Amino acid sequence: MEGYEKLGYMALNVSDVARSRDFYHKQVGLQPSGEAEGIAFLRCSEDHHNLSLHAGGPPGLKRAGFEMKSAAALDQLGARLAAEGIAVSEVPADERKLLGLGRAFRIAEPHTGATYEFYDHMRQWGGQPFQPTVAKIQRLGHFVLKVPDFDGACRFHTEVLGFRVSDMIDGTICFMRCHPNPYHHGVGLGRANEVLLHHVNFMVTEVDDIGRGISRFNKAQVPIVNGPGRHPPSGSMFLYYLDPDGITVEYSFGMEEFPAEGARKPRVMEPIKASIDYWDSFLDPRKATVGAIERIAAE
């Protein structure tokens, strides 16, 4: 299988689209790329969008979109999902046009109910290239889900979706890359008593983006809920903060990259706090407490 190009975009449900659009533009540093049918689009790349904001429903994850390497890779994944008894729903043409997508289908991830979308390409932005502002954002990095059926979810993501484990914190967290995309993780799963979006990540270009972010967030009274710190699994420096609805967002700087072939074996780390953060940094209990998962049946 050719596999994945990248985690392409995240769709979030928010209580006030205009307020959240301004936050992700002015505080996070994404560039607005249009509005249609009550949806606000923002980008941090040449893509039509990397974040979409939707009104309605409890704040949290509406869906996650993955770009495949090719139409053939999309077909291969669809056939494998169907063989596993997973319902595959084609995205209607009018919605694909709205989202700037080529061929696309969606599934309900069976262990979390999260909507995953897979597509062969997204329309490129036809205007100016992405221009960093308050932070030099490199890309949409990853997201992490809380899941009670941790073992089953890890098996589905690796054995059916074809993600590759980069590292594990024994029995508690699984970090997976969207192979052959090189970055340490595009998706993370954490063992929990509830299903929830843990956080959404944007990778920044320099450590100063994190330092300036701390000052900017403090001035704007944006709650910082963890960090700055450093993750031992990926080597990333991190800062977690809350959006206007309390959804947790992360900046990270630096991340291990893997070759497509001949990558090192996954490490299994001890399930202690030091395996998450070298620096034993500040942690606010509001981190990762808001992030409802919208189910396909509710759309």
The gist of it:
By secondary structure, the protein is of the alpha/beta class. The chain is built from five helices and 18 strands.
Walk me through this protein's architecture.
The chain has 299 residues and is α/β, with parallel strands linked by helices. The protein has 2 domains: 4-123, 2,3-Dihydroxybiphenyl 1,2-Dioxygenase, domain 1, CATH 3.10.180.10; 137-293, 2,3-Dihydroxybiphenyl 1,2-Dioxygenase, domain 1 (Roll). It is 19% helix and 36% strand. It has helices at residues 17-28, 71-83, 93-99, 150-160, 207-220, and strands at 4-14, 31-36, 39-43, 51-55, 60-68, 89-90, 104-108, 115-119, 137-147, 164-169, 173-177, 187-191, 196-204, 224-230, 237-242, 248-253, 267-269, 292-293. A hairpin with a 6-residue loop joins β14 and β15.
Total separate domains: 2
Q: How does the major sheet shape up?
A: 9 strands, mixed
Q: Over all CA atoms, what is the radius of gyration?
A: 18 Å
**Category by helix and strand content:** alpha/beta
Number of helices, counting only DSSP H or I runs of 4 residues or more: 5
Specify the CATH homologous superfamily of the largest domain: 2,3-Dihydroxybiphenyl 1,2-Dioxygenase, domain 1
What distance lies between the first and last C-alpha atoms, to the nearest angstrom?
31 Å
Summarize the amount of helix as a percent range: 10-25%
User: Residue ranges: pLDDT <50 for 5 or more in a row?
Assistant: none
Question: Could you tell me the mean pLDDT?
Answer: 96
Give the second-level CATH assignment, the architecture of the largest domain. Answer: Roll
